[in-house]
Amino acid sequence: MTKTALIVIDMQNSFLHPDGENAYPDAQSVVPNVRALIEKANANGRIVVHVADRHREGFEDFEDKRLPRHCVTGGFNAEFFEGFGPSGAVGEIEIVKRRFSAFFATELALFLNEQGVGRVVICGVKTNVCVRATSQDAFAHGFEVVVVGDATNSNREHLARASLEDIDRYLGKVVDTGEALEMLA
């Protein structure tokens, strides 16, 4: 049986809190499904990786060339949204990233390989940016990629749909929360 880990992308105030700098109307629609995935993973001893997008105040950051400054370390927007982030449960870790992918320039691939993980179930925000980039890099690192389509979304619905289609065709599999819960059981 393939060892499975859950990767939860950017469930932070910036995207989910109504006052967040990158909040969008439909962002919170993923909250119940992502919470259900975390609960199931924790209940079954799965590794849960809480990914946070964070950038340093006062320093240059390559992403600033494409995006407004966001998720500055220590600020409200960089904090996990209420009920998200490591809870202290055994098997939960935090990975901080400075680019779209949770794998780029982090220890995520090394850590998952050391734990014998072969499949990653990915959820969170935003489908067409950080979820897509993380899926691409997970595939490149040799992981079986599963994205939970109804536990991720974007403020650009047409790009979210296209990203899910690409992921399902080229990188892995897109499933609904029910199927993902079975994989985490």
TrEMBL record:
<dbReference type="Pfam" id="PF00857">
    <property type="entry name" value="Isochorismatase"/>
</dbReference>
<dbReference type="InterPro" id="IPR050272">
    <property type="entry name" value="Isochorismatase-like_hydrls"/>
</dbReference>
<protein>
    <submittedName>
        <fullName>Cysteine hydrolase</fullName>
    </submittedName>
</protein>
<dbReference type="InterPro" id="IPR000868">
    <property type="entry name" value="Isochorismatase-like_dom"/>
</dbReference>
<dbReference type="InterPro" id="IPR036380">
    <property type="entry name" value="Isochorismatase-like_sf"/>
</dbReference>
<keyword id="KW-0378">Hydrolase</keyword>
<feature type="domain" description="Isochorismatase-like">
    <location>
        <begin position="4"/>
        <end position="177"/>
    </location>
</feature>
<dbReference type="GO" id="GO:0016787">
    <property type="term" value="F:hydrolase activity"/>
</dbReference>
